Amino acid sequence: MQKRLFLSVFLVGVFAQTLMSQVSNLLPTSLGFASVARSDTWTAFHNPAALVQGERFQVALQYENRYIVKELSNELVQFGYTNKYLNVGIAFSYFGFSRYNEMMASAIFSHNFKRFSIGLAVNYLALYAGAETGYKHTVLPQFGVQVQVHRLVRLGFQTFNPFLQSLSVDGFKNPLPSVYSLGVDYAFYPHFRWSTQVDYRVNQISPVYVQTGFEWQAVEFFLLKLGMYYQKYVVGVLGVEFSYRVFDVGLNTELHPILGVNIMAKIGFKWR
User: Which residues contact 150 (CB under 8 A, 6 or more apart)?
Assistant: First the structure.
């Protein structure tokens, strides 16, 4: 009984802090750390202008478990096709459990103009908050741009829900998080890169979210990631990625000073 009561209080607290988690904390660091300015990798629900990886197909599956609580798991599947005319992607994500869950589907479009790229995503959000409430739905736009200001430096900007849309649940109007992200990616030395990103999240208790991290490609098939992010607390991040021809697999771990360990794994395939 005490265990169930503790779990219920814990879940309510987490959901209260990360309402509409698909938007506000879908990928706390992402497997492409501080990804708003990254063009070598694309993760759904991040900057849509990042979908520019040459002429190829790509598909990826991602699983995240927050703080070793199965009710706080997130599953993501994404597919992308990039070419010289119009890059297209689709994605679907599910968060939660039977009594409370959020689903998000996205259609992504982008184009690369040599020194800069632009992207647009149309995101459909469905929130289930119990049998009495049922499903609540809305559509949220997302825009992004990346600019190659130097052969080693790329800037990125994206905004999610820029029009401050809200969702009514049980007669209460709940503002959805509106996210504005600005970042830089700097390949400062062969096999090394540094990425930094700052988010401003409207309608959040802690609106400023800062990420920074380094990547080292030790050998052709192995990548090591080390970083941190700040949102009220400083959280350390450690990640690895293995790749071989059309196949790659990544693992990120985070250590929150209060809530504990967050684990994220991803497997992807790409082909021409």
Answer: none
> What pTM was estimated for this model as a whole?
0.85
Q: Which residues contact 203 (CB under 8 A, 6 or more apart)?
A: 164, 175, 176, 177, 178
Burial of 46 (0-12, 13-18, 19+ CB in 10 A): buried
Rounded to whole angstroms, the Cα distance separating 167 from 130 reads 15
Residue 65 to residue 132: CA distance in whole angstroms: 28
Each residue's pLDDT tens digit, 153-167: 999 999 999 998 888
Spell out the residues 6+ positions from residue 264 whose beta carbon is closer than 8 angstroms to its own: 27, 28, 29, 31, 62, 63, 64, 65, 251, 252, 253, 254
Angstrom distance (rounded) from CA 12 to CA 34: 28
Report the distance separating Cα 96 and Cα 30, nearest Å. Answer: 19
- Over residues 98-142, the pLDDT tens digits come to 888 889 999 999 999 989 999 999 999 998 878 777 888 899 999
Q: Give the other-Cβ count within 10 Å of 150's Cβ.
A: 9
Domains of the chain with CATH codes: 2-271 (2.40.160.40)
Half-sphere exposure of residue 153, counting CA atoms within 13 Å on the CB side? Answer: 6
What is the distance, to the nearest Å, from the Cα of residue 147 to the centroid of all Cα atoms in its chain? Answer: 20
